[in-house]
Design a protein that fits this description.
Blueprint lengths: L3 E3 L11 E5 L2 E6 L4 E2 L3 E5 L6 E4 L18 E10 L2 E11 L3 E9 L10 E4 L6 E4 L5 E8 L8 E10 L4 E10 L7 E8 L2 E8 L7 E7 L7 E2 L6 E2 L9 E10 L5 E8 L2 E2 L7 E2 L5 E9 L5 E3 L9 E3 L14 E2 L11 E3 L8 E2 L7 E4 L11 E6 L4 E10 L6 E10 L2 E9 L5 E9 L2 E4 L6 E2 L6 E8 L2 E8 L5 E8 L8 H4 L6 E8 L6 E11 L3
Antiparallel strand pairs: 1-26, 2-3, 3-5, 4-28, 5-6, 7-8, 8-9, 9-10, 11-12, 12-13, 13-14, 15-16, 16-17, 17-18, 17-19, 20-21, 21-24, 22-23, 24-25, 27-42, 28-31, 29-30, 30-42, 31-41, 32-38, 32-42, 33-34, 33-41, 34-35, 35-36, 35-37, 38-39, 39-40
Length: about 525
Amino acid sequence: MNAIIANPVLRGFHPDPSFCRVGEDYYLATSTFEWFPGVQIHHSRDLVHWRLVARPLARLTQLDLRGIAPSGGIWAPALSWADGRFWLVTTIVRTANHDQENILVTAPTIEGPWSDPIRLNRLGFDPSLFHAQDGRKYLVQMALDPHRRQDFFKGIYLTEYDPVSEALIGPTRRIFHRCLGGTEGPHLFQREGWYYLIVAEGGTGWGHAVTVARSRDLWGPYGADPASPLLTSRGDPTLPLQKAGHGSLVEAGDGSWWMAHLCSRPMEVAGAAVPRRCILGRETALQRVVWTEDGWLRLEGGGTAPARHFQAPDLPPHPFPAEPDLDDFDEATLAAPWQTLRCPADPIWLSLSERPGHLRLRGRESLRSRFAVSLVARRLQSLQVTVDTCLEITPRSPWHMAGLTAFYADDNYLALLVSRGDDGRRRLVLFRRSNGEEAQLLEGDGIIIPEEGSIRLRLSLRGRWLTWAWAAADGPWQDVPIVSDASELSDDVACGGWGFTGTFVGVCALDLAGDGCYADFDWFRYREEAS
């Protein structure tokens, strides 16, 4: 019997998966929103083991996120393979679902080089490229009502794309309106004389779902499966995987069919205004699906609920080396898990060579800024985690700071920082920002620390609660007398309860005076504990 695998397969912030198979290789592309580089692509050969292999939008000529609001930026990439190339379409969302741009990039291999973007249109978001069997190509996407009337989601639209002129041609027509409402995330494919349309419905929250519709004609009309939805966790708060929706399909090499979809793993927060919170954000899970005799899809095992576990397909196992817990910053480039906020890792503010074996961050604007933040962070992927780092900084004023952060968005974060008080002594300060309200949590001016030498900082997450500690050089750990509520760093609280990302942990440097301050980080360690 094949192994039993736990969902989600991509843990932590990995939403809006787009599934693609090329021979014996499988790829999952997911959204990155305001994090840079844009789009994450994971690779597998057995649908069990996955590794990050590409972030295609890695140049400012491809992607400029400066000023983008939290949970704006890159939404719902769609990855496909045709004509000897990878094709990736996605949306850059700039303001509140109205000012967005749909773009296309291509590459001969998954590692690149990826082209500069072709601008397609501004009609809605969630574009996907359909490669028809006759060789023609079509852009399928949702559209919005620009006046925000009651029917805000206008349905799914289709336009032909000409790869020679690199432009959309011909009419744009609506091919499907809705089954459950809030219709988005479309993908088209052909099978046995039918055109199948997979859509996300119900909004990317507790009512999320996957619906399937089909037509004999590409241009429709498309009729929804009478048994819709195919997948949902709506209406059953006991399910461990919630918010299930936004599906994408692949036929595996063993003939089985698989759907990748997003989901969240909530924790219960008794007595809170929002009783269920998803600190890890929206993650990616897999479900095996089967075809009925009359040509509709069903979850293997029946029902519509997402499965917490699945049996691995009949494919040769293909594990990858595990990511090390410790990053000692000895390489010439940042390790795979790291991302930066809105801006590329430019030598102007980040260096791995100025002091070999260290990550040097030159302080820039505050963590509240949407333009020039010196922050390097990685996804939180478990609720049982210990993170620690070692840094050296000589702050010359209270406007110089550097340290460790648990970060959801510029309006929602916690940060333990080395700084200097008005009395001239070096100290630790702990900031909490929650939906725009900021407080310094340590009494007085913070914790006085030694004037010279490196400082180690640690955060420990155990479910909802996050604790902090510090140590001087090789001295003993000392607890910071504050317990933080990490559940505030969740999709359900952050960004006014409408966040789309997830919690990151990382290091940062601030120079609010702009007079030249930097911090050197010797190492960073991320350890998941047995739950």
